[in-house]
Please model this.
Amino acid sequence: MRTLARAGVITLAIGATLLGGAAAVQAAPAGAVSVSVNRLILEPGTSGHTGSVRVVLKNRTNEAWSGAVAVIEPIAGTYLETSGASGCTGGVTSDNRQIAYCYLDHDLAPGAREVLTVSFRSPAKPQAYPQIAPATGSVEVAGTSAEFPALFRSTTGSLRNPRPYVQDTASALTVTAGAVTLTPQADGTFAGHLPVTVRNDGDAPHSGLLTELVAPAGVDGAYLAGSGPCIGANVLPVPDGAYGVGCSVSGQLDEGRSRTFDWTITAPAGTPAGPLGTATTLVQLEGGPAQTGGANIAAVAVTVAG
Model:
């Protein structure tokens, strides 16, 4: 089982070479390896939707076959993983849908049948009516392809008479945070917690969240509990003497849901009591569209306790 790591923009033409010729689905005689796939039903949860398709491969030759399966997701940002294949690479189509290109975990013997499971997840809010995606997904193996539609089941369990699904193309995050006070620690330094809450009111494609914090001069550290890799801030401006950091937070944030981050901000021993200045924090979609208007940015006062 392997999750796709998104790469640069790559366009897949069914039956043509993938990844610009660097790696292609292994050639086979016409009709030698067949592929079939069922429709994708995205089931509503407490928030968001999940679903999977079964990809059935059949080697109709008298030789063992090893190669790759190329999957194009029907809805941007929904592909999760392919069970039964690994070594995945990929890119995106011209309309921002992921391409997952994964090698089978073992050779397919002559006459053998193999079933792969491809999993998907959407942050879209469950609705009282079913929906259908405007584009179909596809699976390609050895020059043979099969398409599959994607439907959202309603909260009442219905799939009948689905309405067209329209995915957001812009981020709709709102960030709130309160003032933070740095208090003395046992070693003479100062530290304080800054909870930051982000709400998502859209279903734009994304794989996770990116958050940044720029603290005023006098702060010597900022750490985010439970985050992924952290680097210097590269979206928010960092004034001279200020402290800037950016961290990734894994997992989609579903439409209509909120998440709270807990930053710890520190200052060295000997820092005088009183206001240090203003800290600014930002949250944006990782692997998704940008946001304008500033609702995903909040500024808070930082004070050192006496």
